[in-house]
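Data card: per-record layout.
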Amino acid sequence: MQAPDPSAADTPARLPTLGDRFADWGAPEALVDAWRTVEAYPIVAAAIIVLLAFVAGKAVQAVVARGVSRLTEKTRTSFDDKVVELLHRPLFLTVFFLGLTLALGVLELPPGLRRRLVQVLMTLLLIVWLTAVWPILRMVLDALGRHHERFPLVEERTIPLFDITGKIVLLGTAGYVLLAIWGVDPTPWLAAGGVAGLAVGFAAKDTLANLFGGIFIVADAPYKVGDFIILDSGERGVVTKVGMRSTRLLTRDDIEITLPNAQIANAKIINESGGPWEKERIRIKVGVAYGSDVDRVCEVLKRIAAEHEHIVRQPEPRVRLRAFGASSLDFELLCWIDEPVLRGRLSHELNMAVYKAFAREGIEIPYAKHDVYVKEMPAG
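The structure for this 380-residue chain is written out next.
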């Protein structure tokens, strides 16, 4: 029996070439022989692979675009067309980078250098896909928000929450894949991230409070963009933006106020645009002298509201005698307006109209009078 050659154990096994793989895949013998001849010239073989990868990438890009375009022609929206347009480049680069990986395998490069170059290519491909999926996420949320009757969970007020959650998931997945590409064990990184998260949480507790306040506002929806709200701290205006950190109000003086969400989450909020409709009732208080014709007063007040173009017809304006005052009968005109933001101007216009109408009708509006009686003139 022949003893084994100890030097053979130190000889590394020959790695299968691309020609060997062609033979294993059952390719024609002539093609296998031709390719093995080309492999004798690594640069030429690599150039051929790169060229074929470029052609294959363009072919895949064209086939997918044509096939998907036939499907998107049947839809009425441009959403799917934009998605296909954003995927053109990643599809081509995926095929092309795979070809570059095969080309690196043909070249006579040190194994360490070859592995690093492949890792760089896979990292670039990951970045390409991440930059393509990033805007698609927002487009999908906007499309679902426009059809919130079919997807009630996704609407204008919840889109920011889903948007930031989706981006965090994308970044987390991309980070995990990046570590896997470079052969890094993610366990120590996750442990370090937990410790760093605690440190950041203590250092940025106010920012996190605003962030969670924004999440609660989006989830609970005490108001939305366009609502007219009043806070217990005195701020009053139209909501122009609901962000994850703050909410912006535009006051009647055209001054924009930015309020931290943590403050709003713990505040009492009066939403004058809430309820079954946006209409709001305003109250015009007026006093008339005792002895006035109360029926005539009610008729005049109702006519004033009915003749104003910005007073809502339904519900109808109402007049109520509220109290017997010290020197007047206290009436109240109740009427509805379309938007809360009109309350100040319409209250002014109705007060002006009441004063003029009472003057024409001879209805007295009493006011405080003081009579001074001098019992005796001082001696001169």
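Known properties of this structure: The chain has three domains: 18-197, 220-271, 280-361. Residues 4-15 have pLDDT under 50 and may be disordered.

See the next section for split statistics.
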